[in-house]
Write a structure and sequence with these properties.
Its cofactor is (6R)-5,10-methylene-5,6,7,8-tetrahydrofolate; FAD. It holds the Pfam family FAD_binding_7. By secondary structure, the chain is mainly alpha-helical. The protein folds into 3 domains: about 5-130, Rossmann fold (3-Layer(aba) Sandwich); about 130-170 and about 210-290, Serine Threonine Protein Phosphatase 5, Tetratricopeptide repeat, CATH 1.25.40; about 300-480, DNA Cyclobutane Dipyrimidine Photolyase, subunit A, domain 3 (Orthogonal Bundle). The chain contains 20 helices and 5 strands. The termini are far apart. The structure holds flavin-adenine dinucleotide (FAD).
């Protein structure tokens, strides 16, 4: 496609390197404009101090600075993309609008409407693969169907990559920078957070391309130990790159290329290949969502929709206690405190808290999923839905329904010294490593000597795990009857 004038619409791809749409626009046209739209449909319902908006806002500034260094600039608008983008395309007189593909069902629908609106004005809409290494139809079973089990999917994914290494090739931008449309002299300054209706504040982690790269460089130094360290929430064992992957401030190809190089030259130890597997989980869940969009509202396995979750005022109270970290199970409460205060939760703890909500409290996974969606800085529909359905056993390749995490033994195993709990539940800081995982088992006078009174300083457990486990097995028995 050759054009004189094009517009790249940035969405969840906030970077100016190794960028499929930007590369295509710059190689096919000699006047490339760039736009980001603060989508009022997404932003209006958010709290005014939303951490993700602060991250996006800082990343937009970094993107604009990089585009200016290259000779272009970022136009920033606010409103409904379906109105703003066609209007801007007309104002600039571009022949095409280019984007990096977004696979979430609502985004797919919006992009289909965008293509129609632009076509009605005689303009093209081009959507390119960028966010994943392989899309939903690129890694298939021998029968040419989608996988529903992770390990064979991963093996097929790796095999396909080995046969098509060019899939990881970078989409360079710098060398075509002369094709950027230069910023007009009267280009307005980027809007402040207040101007888009949000409270001022710092992003929750280093934002933008340089933030992502600094975090990745730091992780690369620790990657060899990832396989061991990744399960311990008190340790700095994981990359924390999920927010950058969510908003595209880093490139998945760049991450996979680096991990593979480190596997090949031995510098990544065993950690690099374990980490690569996690990146493949991300694509697995993206594929599941794209192939089975019913998972947004229903269980992946229909038989599990017969489960009767707890409801009513008692369930609402249990749910509120879980959200606020008042369950009486220290590891669960510490994890919820981390989520509420920072917007991050360690993967092990996402599994523990999701299991606790669904299998100890008997509450529908969809309620927990929505709470995570509200709070997580890295919230992403595919991975969040996949993670929740895994923990609730309703998903594909999920935890078997009769396997129920014991929140105390998880705590003893993955926070053995209680460091994580002490950081996030200071009321228990004086307890020893032996006492901290289940304070209700400690004699009251021993607790009192340490300044802790249960029911005053820290709650009694909401449920007794053994009894809750029994109720869950009964609740899930319906699956045994309904399943073929
Ligand atoms: C109930 C539940 C909800 C979750 N919700 C989300 C979510 O909304 N957004 C999100 O990005 N991840 C989600 N995850 C997956 C995982 O917990 C996070 O990706 C991870 O904790 C992010 O930390 P990190 O970047 O340090 O991960 P690392 O361990 O460094 O992993 C590297 C990258 O691999 C991907 N990844 C790792 N584990 C998984 C996984 N289990 N599933 C899919 N991708 C994975 C992420 O992109 C991550 O950044 C969820 C998991 C569970 C169990």
């Amino acid at each position: 496609m050759n054009m004189s004038n094009s517009l790249v619409w940035f969405r969840r791809d906030l970077r100016a390197f190794d960028h499929a749409a930007l590369h295509r626009a710059l190689t096919a046209s000699n006047r490339v404009h760039c736009v980001f739209v603060y989508d009022s449909g997404i932003l209006d319902p958010l709290p005014r101090d939303d951490r993700r908006v602060r991250f996006i806002h800082a990343s937009i500034a970094s993107l604009d600075a990089e585009l200016r260094r290259l000779g272009g600039h970022l136009i920033v608008r606010q409103g409904r993309p379906l109105e703003v983008v066609p209007a801007l395309a007309a104002e600039l007189g571009v022949e095409a609008v280019l984007v990096c593909a977004d696979y979430e069902p609502e985004a797919v629908e919006r992009d289909a409407q965008m293509a129609e609106r632009l076509a009605a004005d005689g303009r093209k809409f081009l959507s390119l693969k960028d966010q994943v290494v392989f899309e939903k139809d690129e890694v298939l079973t021998l029968a040419k169907g989608p996988f529903s089990v992770f390990t064979p999917y991963k093996n097929a994914w790796l095999k396909r990559l080995a046969s098509m290494p060019e899939t990881l090739a970078s989409y360079p931008v710098d060398q075509y920078a002369h094709n950027f449309a230069p910023p007009p002299l009267d280009a307005p300054a980027l809007p402040s957070l207040e101007e888009i209706g949000f409270a001022p504040g710092e992003p929750p982690l280093p934002a933008g391309m340089e933030g992502a790269e600094a975090m990745f460089e730091d992780f690369v130094r620790r990657i060899a130990d990832y396989g061991r360290a990744r399960d311990f929430p008190a340790q700095d064992g994981t990359s924390r790159l999920s927010v950058h992957l969510r908003f595209g401030t880093t490139s998945i190809r760049h991450l996979v290329r680096t991990a593979r190089q480190m596997m090949e030259n031995g510098a990544g130890g065993t950690g690099a290949s374990v980490w690569l597997s996690e990146l493949i989980w991300r694509e697995f869940y993206a594929m599941i969502l794209a192939r089975h969009p019913h998972v947004v509202h229903q269980s992946f396995k229909p038989a599990f929709d017969a489960i009767e979750w707890e409801s009513g005022m008692d369930a609402d109270e249990l749910f509120a206690a879980w959200c606020e970290g008042r369950t009486g199970y220290p590891l669960v409460d510490a994890a919820m405190a981390q989520l509420n205060r920072t917007g991050f939760m360690h993967n092990r703890l996402r599994m523990v808290t999701a299991s606790f909500l669904t299998k100890d409290l008997g509450i529908d996974w969809r309620r927990g999923e929505r709470y995570f969606a509200l709070k997580l800085n890295d919230y992403e529909l595919a991975s969040n839905n996949g993670g929740w359905q895994w923990a609730a056993s309703t998903g594909c390749d999920a935890q078997p329904w009769f396997r129920i995490f014991n929140p105390v033994s998880q705590s003893q195993r993955f926070d053995a010294h209680g460091e994580f709990i002490r950081e996030w539940v200071p009321a228990l800081a004086s307890l020893s490593a032996k006492e901290i995982h289940a304070p209700w088992l400690v004699a009251q006078d021993v607790l009192a000597d340490k300044g802790v009174v249960l029911g005053r300083d820290y709650p009694f457990p909401l449920v007794e795990h053994g009894a809750a486990r029994k109720r869950t097995l009964e609740r899930f028995a319906v699956v045994k009857k309904a399943a073929p």
